[in-house]
Amino acid sequence: MTRSNIKAFTLLEVLISLAIMGMVMATVMQTVQQTRMAVDAIHNISETESVGPRILEQLRTDIENLAVSDVVDYKLLKGEDDTLIGAGADKLDLIVNRRSYIPALANDGNRLLHPYLNEVGYRLKQNPLRSDFLELYRREDTFVDDEPFRDGSYSLVYDRIVSLDIRYAKRPDFDMVWEDYWDTEVEEALPFALEIYLEIEVQPRRSSESLNIIEANRARLSFTDIIHIPEEKRWRFRHHYQPDRISDDPEEAQDEQLENEIADDNSASGFETEDPKR
Amino acid sequence: MAAVTLLAIIFTTVMQIRAGSIEKATRARALSISSRLGNSLLHQIQAGMLIDLIDGYSGDFSEEGFGQFKYVIGVGDSSQFASASANDLEDVWRDYRKNQSEDNSESEETKKPEFTRVFITITYPTADKDEFKDYVIESLVDTWAVERDFELYDFLWPELNPDEID
Asked: What is the ipTM of this complex?
């Protein structure tokens, strides 16, 4: 076999192939890098605008579902001003007509159910891992007992809270007066509106692209919202002790009496056994 | 040669998809911010906290940290600001003044409605920084809250003790 019969690439061919491969690899690496940055940017875009509004929405839904007709002694809402590590850490407790997240054992002891009348609360405590942050917990206690603003199970809502401040306004006015405390048992009324100020810190990823996208790289975010309790609800709560009136019309009075008797019979027979604690 | 062409096509497609994803995510973010800021403004109106609210009330959300987001509020069913972009306010004001001078000629006393329709138009920036889009919230709000008529509020919802109700 002579040297001229050997089939092989020339040095020039190998060099050209290497150059092409190099260019392709460089493009691939650049694309991968840019895609990774895009993923970070999209994470920042969505994540920085989702946590705060979700927490506020949770609070709003609870307040909008206040159980105005199902409480005794006006014990429905209690808000207290508090501070932790120098930041606002207000407490809020209320009774809501809202399906519980935590199941409760039914009277027969066999079934689990999610009652629609529950005690709910919001509490903050210092984050054990990052001492400059607070952890927000939502308290839930199924049904309502004698102490509606205590006990229950706590679930973590968010662990990087900077501060939570809740203020209460008694009535609308030109110069609205905001108070740091509210107890419906003392006031015998619901506040006209609640102002919630929430400051959180999110963890945006390092991405040069998100710098260009409407503040998507900001880490510390603050949210303020007003929750106005509708007047119908406030009125119903304030006057829910109104004694049953018997109508002047004898037929209507008879119907009302019959309805009341049926209601009494049902409660005596345990037909409405939704709330075993009460 | 064919392989290199194929790779070029693939890379171009990947880059296009990437740009599209960022644009869509930016739009989603702008929409959710607009919705949040607009609703927060609506909640202030519902609580009677927005001072001097008139048809065409406008501003931006720089206090909330979003100076690029602007708003204009239309008040009333026949508001000319119902679908006005905060960037075209000048034209709308011109028409508004013209119509108002026509309306004044035929002055007639009208009864105050229980609710007033409110339109909030948020103008937000898109990925292309020179382009702006609108997001509109429409709602019926108590007239006492829109006009901050607290006498009307007291008339509608008087503070009574439970035993005062018959």
From this structure: 0.75
